[in-house]
Write a structure and sequence with these properties.
By secondary structure, the chain is mainly α. The chain is built from 3 helices and 2 strands; from the N terminus they run E-E-H-H-H. Helix 1 (about 30-55) crosses helix 2 (about 60-70) and helix 1 (about 30-55) runs antiparallel to helix 3.
């Protein structure tokens, strides 16, 4: 069994610990940050999908698709015409 190893200047890690690198070579925080980011992204997708279903009365898949193209900034255009409240919701979703 080996001990800690040096992966970058001043950065040490245990051999069993996952390591991710930034472009400058410094180690990033491991799984905790990834889990939080994934949970936040899933929550925003759920909020966006539910918002379009409730505000616009769209089918679930259309609402999910609209959320995906909005958050990815692809911006193909609206799946269905939006009301003013739907447009305001889209603006809030973009800033989330």
């Amino acid at each position: 069994m080996s001990g800690p190893r040096r992966i970058a200047a001043g950065v040490w890690t245990h051999p069993d610990e996952p390591v991710a690198f930034r472009f400058d070579g410094r180690a990033l925080q491991g799984r905790r940050g990834d889990t939080l980011a994934s949970a936040l992204l899933a929550a925003i997708f759920a909020l966006g999908t539910g918002g379009y279903v409730l505000l616009e009365g769209w089918p679930w898949f259309d609402a999910f698709y609209m959320t995906a193209i909005t958050l990815s900034t692809v911006g193909y255009g609206e799946v269905h015409p939006l009301s003013n409240s739907g447009r305001a919701f889209t603006v809030v979703l973009v800033f989330l």
